[in-house]
Amino acid sequence: MAASSDVKLLGSRLSPFVNRVQIALNLKSVDHEFILENLQAKSELLLKSNPIHKKVPVLIHNHKSICESLVIVQYIDEAFPDGPSILPSNPFDRSTARFWAAYIDDKWFPVFRMLADVKQDEESRAAVLEKMTEGLVPLEDVFLKFSNGKGFFGGDTLGYIDIVLGCYLRGINATEIHLGRKILDETKIPALAEWARRFISHEAVKGAFPETEEFLNLFKTMESAKAAAAESEASN
């Protein structure tokens, strides 16, 4: 186990990308120091550690900085070989896992982000939520293939796709509560819906996720700010 002085994680509580790295560290039992960043007033350490993007997460291991969550998770798997492997050992399976990770972040997540900008009427929101569910349908088939009848994409334990997709689950759950509509629709993606329940209860995940209430409060704050901006624009 690495000493906490050797491993530091710069992050924010409500970032799924930071949560992603925390899950990987927990899965590998890597002791680490979590440094909470104020993203409205970024620290010198963050700006120095990630001068290109100036974003979290940043992993600092032995005074060296690793940036971008997918890169960090792969680094953790290689740098800390003890514990379960995150990426498959077979080159083809490993490349396939990376392909679907890119699909999740580059194709599916941008639809999730549309909820922040879409009109507040029920019809507009419903269209985005339906698109989110449909975007998960291909991953239902991937899960059935990768899991081999076991509980996770990685088989008996969490793997790369589990961590990449699973980091969004708290936000998905909060969105379902906030809008009163299912995204993980058991009639369309039953295996993924069941997988999500297992993922949330995994020991490596419990300590990494913020409470759902924190996301709900964030949603309310964002909606209030959006409504205030619209009112201000209308009065000009």
From TrEMBL:
InterPro entries: Glutathione-S-Trfase_C_sf, Glutathione_S-Trfase, Glutathione_S-Trfase_N, GST_C, GST_C_Tau, Omega/Tau-like, Thioredoxin-like_sf. Keywords: Detoxification, Transferase. One of its GO terms (cellular component) is cytoplasm. Residues 99-203 form the Glutathione S-transferase C-terminal domain. GO terms for molecular function: glutathione transferase activity. It is an enzyme of class 2 (transferase). Residues 9-82 form the GST N-terminal domain. It catalyses: RX + glutathione = an S-substituted glutathione + a halide anion + H(+). This is glutathione transferase.
